[in-house]
Amino acid sequence: MRVRMTGLAGVVAIAALLAGAAPASAAPGDASAYGAKLNVTLLGNPAVNAEPFAAANANGPTQNTFAGVDLTGILKTGVINASASRDDKSGGVYSRASTADVRVDLLAKVTGKISAELVEAECQATQKGLAGKSKLAGVNLGKLGQVNAHPAANTVLDVQLAGIKIAEVIFNEQIKNDDGSLTVNAIHIKLLQGKLGSIGTGDVIISSATCGPAGLPIPMASGAGLWIGLGLLGVAAAPVAFVALRRRASLNAA
């Protein structure tokens, strides 16, 4: 967690106290985002692993852009933008990923054309809690069906071949992680392992944003925060002043 420091010595004392009170289950103030990530194996062929494109993090780089993904037979996109930020005053964090001109060829033989003009994921954490959402524009799901521009959390459409479910496409996937953070995947394609007629295994994620719990605000510039800081500084300084006074009294008596 980053803490904005001022010229007041009391900030040091308050920062130390608040850091000790932070929950151990999650690092507050964390946020990250990326445009696309793939890990798939098609019909026993070597796995296709693609690291997150345009990854951004609240600790830096806070913004990132990628010209576009072009993986033949799997995924093609336009420009990807991702950002993640932290507000040191409020403790809040925010992350966002936006992927333009998406075309998914991975399931084309079964579902037909799957495309979207824009796929976005957002995640925000404030002192009130965590929230996320996804936005889809110009979506064409072929034979897969329909989905709203702002799909409900964890909307799932099944992909079937000869009546057998071989994959599922999750829109606005929202995952509450064990460390207290929230991950929002605008689109998550899961190829189901071990299914008869399966075309492969693995995952394709398009536009993902993650945010941890909000950090602890330290409003030290004025008001109550200033007086608390000065008060703690006085408490810390009192023993030193007492020792100095005793030493002076001893010198005068001598």
Brief descriptors of the model:
254 residues; alpha+beta; transmembrane helix; LPXTG-motif cell wall anchor domain-containing protein; seven-stranded antiparallel sheet; single chain; transmembrane
User: What does the overall shape look like?
Assistant: elongated
- N-to-C SSE series? HEEEEEEEEHEEEEEEH
Q: Kindly state the mean pLDDT as a whole number?
A: 80
Low-confidence parts:
1-26, 222-238, 240-245
Number of helices: 3
Number of beta-strand segments: 14
The CA-CA distance between the termini, in Å, is 52 Å
Strand content: 35-45%
Radius of gyration: 26 Å
Task: Give an overview in words.
This is LPXTG-motif cell wall anchor domain-containing protein. Residues 1-26 form the signal peptide. Keywords: Membrane, Signal, Transmembrane, Transmembrane helix. This protein is of the alpha+beta class. 19% of the residues lie in helices and 44% in strands. It is built from three helices and 14 strands. The strands form two sheets. Strands 1, 2, 3, 11, 12, 13 and 14 form a seven-stranded antiparallel beta sheet that branches. Strands 4, 5, 6, 7, 8, 9 and 10 form a seven-stranded antiparallel beta sheet that branches. A hairpin with a 2-residue loop joins β11 and β12. α1 (10-21) crosses α3. The protein is elongated, with a radius of gyration of 26 Å. 37% of the residues are buried.
